[in-house]
Amino acid sequence: MQLNPSEISDLIKKRIEKFDVNVEAHTEGTVVSITDGIIKVHGLSDVMQGEMLEFPGDSYGMALNLERDSVGVVMLGAYQHITEGDTVKCTGKILEVPVGDALLGRVVDALGNPIDGKGDIDSNETSPVEKIAPGVIARKSVDQPVQLGLKSIDSMIPVGRGQRELIIGDRQTGKTAIAVDAIINQKTTGIKCIYVAIGQKRSSISNLVRKLEEHGAMAHTIIVSATASESAALQFIAPYAGCSMGEYFRDKGEDALIIYDDLTKQAWAYRQMSLLLRRPPGREAYPGDVFYIHSRLLERASRINAEEVEKLTGGKVKGKTGSLTALPIIETQGGDVSAFVPTNVISITDGQIFLESDLFNAGIRPAVNAGLSVSRVGGAAQTKIIKKLGGGIRLDLAQYRELAAFAQFASDLDDATRKQIERGQRVTELMKQNQYSPMSVAEMAVSLFAANEGFLDDLDVKKVRDFEEALQSYLKTEQTDLMTKINEKGDFNDEIKKGMTAAIKSFIKTSSW
Amino acid sequence: MSELATLARPYAEAAFKRAKETDSSKEWSENLAFLAAIMQDESLSAIVNNPKVAQDKLTQLLQDICQEQIKGEASNFLKILIENGRLSITSEIAVLFEQYKAEDEGYVDVDVITAYSLTKAEEQKFATSLKKTLNKNVNINASVDINLIGGFLVKAGDSVIDGSIGGQLQQLAKRI
């Protein structure tokens, strides 16, 4: 947008007109010392914990340590221009970020400033970064599904709206890939997505944005980015800022999905801040309240009932529940889930998706370990048809795991065992899925049905994926009625069962895989 | 600065309590102000901070300097400061002592900074209106700063009331 000088002067004139002259009263302090982004300030007698403080040169800090004669402040952004003796002003405000629909499709930093070069964000509403989670009365139990579009997860580890499901695994096991697929799959569901990137490379974020744009998933997504080059304070508050943006949708009766990628790095940032603030270190040098930083964040992901939505919107939205589903990501070191932060987050969340590098390297992608992954509340939310058909898959895989060690003695085994092993191999093969290709409920249901009914048993293991792919494209073109019916209702009854059996049989006749 | 205040607090508190008991806070205040003033002297602070100077010699020296002004309990206080090696924080002690005194007597020191010097009547007006807003008796310290352009700036402890044109221009600059 190009402005000519007269327009600019008009704009300034308007601002001056609107500017109300008032006497400003605030408390002040002086900078005593500056070390590694931590500033000690003398004075500021009535500062609040977490208050924004104004420094010279339009920079801001957050008051974290309130001591008798000084205040410990972490800087949000650059602090190199601040010198000893500078005046610090209280703003009387807790840190706030802009929220609203205008943020959708944008990339913002931890303070809500756009960093995608698409101009200002036209949003009048702001929301404090730190808020208390909804109370007991305001809540509703989880009973609607969030389809992540991944067979292995939606069938065995279902996620419901308002649930907190941890994605945990070593580096390079496809944690982010699951999250991205989940975002892409929400294109048609109306669930707004927020992706919070903490301590990542800028190049990975730009790749992610490009991928989401390619798949048309940016329109319903907000990306909050606090990259590795930004200060620890920004990396620490980014998840809370993203959560406030998600709560905006929850509180007006919509559904939102937030991904924290990843909370390990947030804990590191917080550890750095705490050590520099001279708070006593505890286990793994984390401060004493490292559990609380994650529990208060994840507790804000919730489902709230219609009355609460009505109250929060002032009666504008009636009869609609709101939800914020969280998919926190934790990176383990060498598969060690018993480290401090992983155990904390495992105990906070409603289940975890456990990814393993061994599986990943064996070509099983997504590398979900079905035995260790659980979903504590998602079962109640699962689509009926997937629940019905997914039960068999889980059992097949569990039995296969027990017998897998004997697989190489195939010739010496009894029939029942051999059959189980073969079924397990085929199901494992079927659970593989390419990245960026999430599946609809109907597509998933037919694949699971084929495995349950033994249509895969006669196939060569290597042919399973080709078979599935061909089956899906056949159904897409020849059986659209059946597929839309499953997608709409999500029920499993005799009619659907007959329809699916007939469809698969007629596909097998074409033998086109 | 903040660490020094932490160190100075117990001394100031003790001095003030004793002063109140003996009803001699005015004398104490003068004595402490005098001590703070002599500690500002460079040649003296060089001696005080020199570790080679023995404690009894230092005591002797300071007693020589202050023999006229500091007597009785205040000179005992000085001895304690020398013993504990806390002579360097005397100015903080004096500041804190004044704060305790002001708090106890229910008045605040207020800096009123204006672009042009105030008349007596204006000063009086400030005093009455500030007394209302701060709920305390005020002790006005008027000074002039041309950079304010117009209006006034009031500082009472940490709190600042900015009604100056300079401050408003800064606000406006930020808004634009």
Helix content estimate of chain A: 25-40%
Secondary-structure content class of chain A: alpha/beta
State the total count of DSSP E strands of chain B.
Answer: 4
SSE order of chain B, as H and E? HHHHHHEHEEEH
* Average pLDDT score of chain A: 92
> Into which percentage range does the β-strand content of chain B fall?
15-25%
Report Rg of chain A.
26 Å
Low-confidence stretches of chain A: none
Using the alpha-carbon principal axes, give the shape of chain B: elongated
Beta-strand fraction estimate of chain A = 15-25%
Number of separate strands of chain A:
19
List the helices and strands and how they pair.
The complex is a heterodimer of chains A (513) and B (176).
Chain A: H1 5-18, E1 24-35, E2 38-43, E3 51-55, E4 59-66, E5 70-76, E6 87-94, E7 96-98, E8 107-108, E9 126-128, E10 145-146, H2 151-156, E11 159-160, E12 166-169, H3 175-184, E13 192-198, H4 202-214, E14 221-226, H5 232-251, E15 255-261, H6 263-276, H7 290-298, E16 303-304, H8 306-312, E17 322-331, H9 340-348, E18 351-355, H10 357-361, E19 374-375, H11 384-403, H12 415-431, H13 441-452, H14 464-478, H15 480-489, H16 494-510
Parallel strand pairs in A: 8-14, 12-17, 12-18, 13-14, 13-15, 15-17
Antiparallel strand pairs in A: 1-2, 1-6, 2-5, 3-4, 3-6, 4-5, 7-9, 10-11, 16-17, 18-19
Chain B: H1 2-21, H2 25-40, H3 42-48, H4 55-66, H5 73-83, H6 90-105, E1 107-114, H7 120-134, E2 137-144, E3 151-156, E4 159-164, H8 165-175
Parallel strand pairs in B: 1-2
Antiparallel strand pairs in B: 1-3, 3-4
Helix pairs in contact in B: 1-2, 1-6, 2-6, 4-5
